[in-house]
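The instructor's notes for this session suggest beginning with a concrete chain rather than abstract definitions. Hand out the sequence below and ask the class to guess, before any prediction is shown, which regions might be ordered.
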Amino acid sequence: MTTRAQELFTSYGNCTEKTFGFASVNGEDHNIPPTYCDATGFSEGLASVKLDGQWGYIDVNQKTRIAFSFDYAARFKYGQAIVYRGKFRGVIDKQGDYTVPPIYLDLQMLEIDGKPYYISRDSTFFAGLIDSQGNEVIPHRYTYLLPLTGYQHLPLYTVFREIDTAQGSFYEQFEDNPFLFSPEKGRHDLYDSQFNKLASRQSSDYSDGFPHDKLQQIDAFLQEARNKPAEEKVKTAEHILSLPDSTPIPEPSSLYREYERRESSEVDEYLEGLGYRFFTENGKNGLKKGNDILIPAEHRQLRFVNGVILFPQPADMPMLEKHYGGVYRNKEKGIFDIFAVLSADDEPTEGAMQYSLSGDVRLPITETVAGSKKLISTITSLGFVCLHTTQDTAGVVEKKYSLVSWIGEELLPPVYQKIEVTKAGHVLVAQEKEVPEGVEEHLGLFSPRGEEIVPLGVYSSIKAFSEGERALYLATWSDPYPTTAEWKERNDTNKTYLILEVDGSSSRVVNTFTASTVHVTQLDAETGMLQYIKLVSGESL
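After discussion, reveal the predicted structure:
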């Protein structure tokens, strides 16, 4: 919890400037009009909204489920939500009953081992930790209780400082100047997810705290020692923290780099374990699996490489498994590993090749095509995005992108400034067009096989929703079509938004509404409700 997050007062939106509503992906008949002065979006079937100066909760039918009686109401999570009454905060359930009474000066939900807890400040304003029923887990005696991120078994640490009560209560002093109590100064106590205090450090600035690499080592130890006695955990944590900084650090676990490519040594070991090996013949190198030659010995150098794609297309799976050794690293998150072989020859800029692991697919890493240099740039769930660069006589470099399938087939030609593959496997593209008023960015949408779904230039923006099973997109329609400069100037105006659903190679509009601000991340997949903001006074475009 940062100093700013623990300030005493917060302001919220009002209906004199903007209103909040909800558009439904199930059609306009399910919309909730923009009649609220603020909102937090739907979660667990309910949305907290502000009306006539008070917050309450509504359902998807706009029926009031929990009365408008709070000074602020947060989203529901684990069946509970934080609410404000004046300067005090509590926790309610979905019936609107308090599970934690409104007696705390601050509350922040913290998930530990899949359960909700709350970092809290009681009437003394000292911080502690309570469970979902309000039972004290860590006493309220600390100036700060701070969450740790990126560690599986180290959820938090506390900060203790003596308070000079002659200067007033901690509450009064903090209210007067919160920055006087920087969390970097004081005694830092490290806790594990079972609330064992593992170690303490005196700190005068953040460099004196718990080093990231040491916390990684402690976290890795706790992974294997979760059920060991607290005394053993404390002893090991203190030992790790006492090691000199030059002590070699073990490789971070996949928890910290699960979306990154594998290290080359890890790739080599993995593929060699599957029987792949390089061989040399007449001074040149090739690739075998068992006794089968996959890549002839005709290259000066070969090396294995790993690529990571997200949510591969089901239709591509047999081919990816056969040719690229495709395997899920984390199926739930869609993280999928593929492998290839890169060659280096006497002309590395033009002669380097990328082979599939089977050796059947052979793509130049860099080549010159019709005077334009073509380079394999990035990997997507459909194949490879290639960068094409052309330099004119004045030295100006023009960049365009194309999309190539896994077997080298060109899906989209090199005429686009941007190419992005969505989770659903569709291709969002952008192409610039010069007009008398300036430059327009024309957006389009294509199928996984390069078939046109939304023609270029129909919508002035298209963004993909990442939540839910349906292939949904948020688009903006403008008349006249804006230049890139005009689009940037329209952030504070109401615009026409559409929700598109793609099925196969066609799309349909499922909803149209007017708003000034909409974010695709604010779609609640459970209810299909998308929160938006509409300006009370603002030209609609």
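Then share the key points. The longest strand covers residues 301-310. The radius of gyration is 29 Å.
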